[in-house]
Amino acid sequence: MRTRTFLGFAGPSILVMVGLMAVPFGLTIWLSLHRLTFRGEWLWGGFGNYEFILTDPDFWRALEFTLVFCAVTIPAKILLGFVTALALQRMGTLARTLFIACMLLPFIVTPVVGTLAFSWLFRDFGVVNYWLRDLGLGVNWWANEANSRTLVMLHYVWHGTPFATLVLFAGLQTVPRDEIEAAIVDGAGFWYRLSAVILPYLRSLIIFLALMMIMDAYRVFDSIAILTRGLNGTESLMYYNYRVALVDNALARGYAIACLTVLGILVLLIPFLVNTWNEQKALR
Amino acid sequence: MSIDAVRDPDAPRRPGERLATYAAFLFLCLFAVYSAFPFFWTLLTSIKEPVDAFATPPVWVFDPTLSHYASLWLDRGFGWYFLNTAIVTAGTLLISIPIGAIAGYALARYPGRLGFWLLILALVFRALPRTAILLPFYQISRSFGIYDTHILLILVLVSINQPFTIWMMRSFFMTIPAEIEEAAMVDGCSRFKAFLKAIVPVMWPGVITTSLFTFLLAYNEFLMPLILTATKATTLPVAISQFGAEDIRFWSLSAAGAISITLPVVALILIFQKRIVGGLVQGAVKG
Amino acid sequence: MHPAPTRRQLLGTAAGLAGATIAGPAFAQASCDLPQPARAVEISTISNAFPVLQFLMEQMRACSRGNIRVETRLTADNLPQTRTALQAGGNVPFQIIHASNTSFVEFVNRGHLQPITDLVAKHRDAYQLNDIPAGLWQQTAHEGQAYVLPFQSNTHVLFYRRDLLEKHGIAVPATVEQMIAAAATLKAREPAIEHPLAGVYGRGWNVTTEFANIYQSLGGDWFDARGTPTFNDARGQQAIELMKAMLPYMSPNALAFSTDDVMVAFQQGRSAMGIYWASRAANMDAPDVSRVPGAFSFAPAPAAAPGGLPSAAIWWDGFCIPRQINVDRELVFSVMAEGISAATMRRGANLAFYSRTSVVTDPALVAQNRYWPAITATIAAGTKTFPARPFFSLGHTAVGASIIDALQGRATPKEALDRAAMQFTREARSQGFL
Q1: Three-class SS state of C277
Q2: CA B22 to CA C268: how far, in whole Å?
Q3: Min CA distance, A152 vs chain B (Å)?
Q4: Topology (CATH) of C156-312+391-430
Q5: Partner residue opposite A36 with nearest CB, options C203, C270, C431
Q6: Which of A108, C90, C286, C381, by CA, is between 20 and 30 Å from C368?
């Protein structure tokens, strides 16, 4: 394909992305170097905002939580999704349809209300809380860091696993049957089939999933905004950004936090960028 | 490989096979409960009076009421927000999918470095937090006079969605052999005509899957419409969040709103369920 | 020009008379008949979503007739959204905004609002604006100009379970320490009540307001004359200590409690006492929301130290107009005034402690609204509003960012407040206040 044709095909998309995201983002970077007076003037502030944030313990706590959050929820979702996909493999069509329908609910429910509904189950008057206490496992979810973080992560895994399940399930369909049968005939056990045949096939798919998940987990917001509002060390970078910019009304600082957040995710993405470089090279 | 070919009746029965299936079934039941229970509880909450809905021990015997739904749809003009959301979602789909599809196709076929950089750019954009573009968007939209309009929301959602769309479409097109349109081009068609004639008929599974994710994004987006609309173009998630202050009757309204919002999506998913998985099989899998 | 003013005058007088002589709601439907502008006009409002606002906004929406269309947005999140709208410059998309005393100070000092002194003077009789006490007009004025049409006053009062206190022979607490002692008694003797106290201690604005109430009761001033923060003084630390003393009697999840959570705790009989927003008393008792309808009584909030003022502040809420709008301001004012008409207030009498004297001193209505006397007593005791400094909200949020650490014991009160003071100073300098 010639470059001109390429630009013709990809042009509208590039225009939309650059026009509607690069420009606002550029403005964000520019404004992060200013300060906003109460009279509404933007005055040059240099790196003052960055200094403030980098010496704010809340920023570091948010960064720490965000990284912990990614490190815990992404493997959890992939693992849970994979196990569920394997289990679905064994079901008949009707059972599959029903299970998939149930499992998709957390994913398609509007996050704002899904989170609210989820939180009602765990509050003091919540039914899940009540049952846990009956079983002697009563937990006060907002009493300390471990509990609150667990709650937020429970919700996020609840919400995000269906995506992993769907993708991995579809992936399992494409693993060639004959290779599995051959392995069985050779006397291979379940674990061997899994690690030597299935997983290698799904490798690039899992990488794709992990990539998407990192970008989403890093930007987690809805789970926190409604469940805990950042209490007990559950402020993620994005919630911290929202809180400083819109709730505390320190707009200039908010822009600086946004820039730092983007920097952070770019660092996290480096391995994937390398992977994509290799893939595009293979096309030539 | 059809996903319906589940169990080969001639396959040798392996020891523990039955047990594994039962274990899988049990696991799936538990997982289904974990997934669906909050939704089920919200449904119950939406038909209970608040005094029953938020009581411990939980109340299982109660007088059901549809008053919350009535209040929602009749008093609060929920239908109006529904319309706004439908317009914005449809608009986003109609613009985002075509331009994403041709861009994804181009990325799947073009070997030059430019393709790589475009993908990286898209990745970077997808990673942008909403807060990095939200407030400037607000300023820009006010300057251009398109604040609180459907078109603004559509444009914003299309641009936010492009990165994911072009990545996914690229994956789909990479599974369609280049020979298909090569044949048409040999016959003298331009690239675009070849695309229309040869690729479009077979790209539907990928389009449907991508459309689902685009639909969910547009339908469920909260932060953008919250800040970028005032009273005219307000969408459902924002409308829902406007209840719930100072009187727990509003929590019951929110529950009714939650169910009202989710049912259409559930219906859509059930209808297209097979195609969605089929599309995933064909496409992103290989990418 | 139009016969309307005369009609409205009559309507206003009639409403006043009717209200004075008829006990209970007399009007079934909202109605609003404003002079029609020549071209189609759309007026948008933004406000919080309390029940009283739901009600008042309904009255404003009823003014949609012919060429006039009134659209309302109600959200618990109205403060950040209103700020965003006002700070962006240009014509503000909302012509009527709801402000409380703290947000008003912020907005008017930033030049976001327009004075309405002339409109108030012009329509004083038509809308009976003298019915609103002079004191409230003064509180809502800025540099001698009127900016606000206030519709309610609010404060924190003590909510307590009369039946339980009587049962155990506990007197209604007059100080915070007495309240804690009462909670201890209840916890020991009433096993059904697991968490005797409930307070809106949710992270952020909520818990900071609780701090501010107690701090103010101790006589604290947030800033000195020059704006240097003083909230990290001994009184500030003492306020935090008092809050910490209350926490063991609250739910372990108290630091996540919103106003709604406290409401549910009271209504489901899980908590028995608390310093809580008076306006919430309006909807406490309906049987479809409460397991214990009518069980709560109200008194002025206990003082932080013996002989002090109640641990509360006076709040008012009202409507104002942004400086830059592209709609006829007289029409906007009329819609606002319709929203706070005496007739409207009487129809929704149980929803708030309204700004109109005629409404809140009407004996029949006072008898119906058991929480009004507590508010009146709180005002009479000399309770003040929060300091009307333009950077007050910055100080408020700075304390909010650090106070949880102190309440959870991760920092001493002094450390937390000192950190808040430092962050406040930095931000205030950045924003040009200091």
Answers
A1: strand
A2: 43
A3: 15
A4: D-Maltodextrin-Binding Protein; domain 2 (3.40.190)
A5: C431
A6: C381
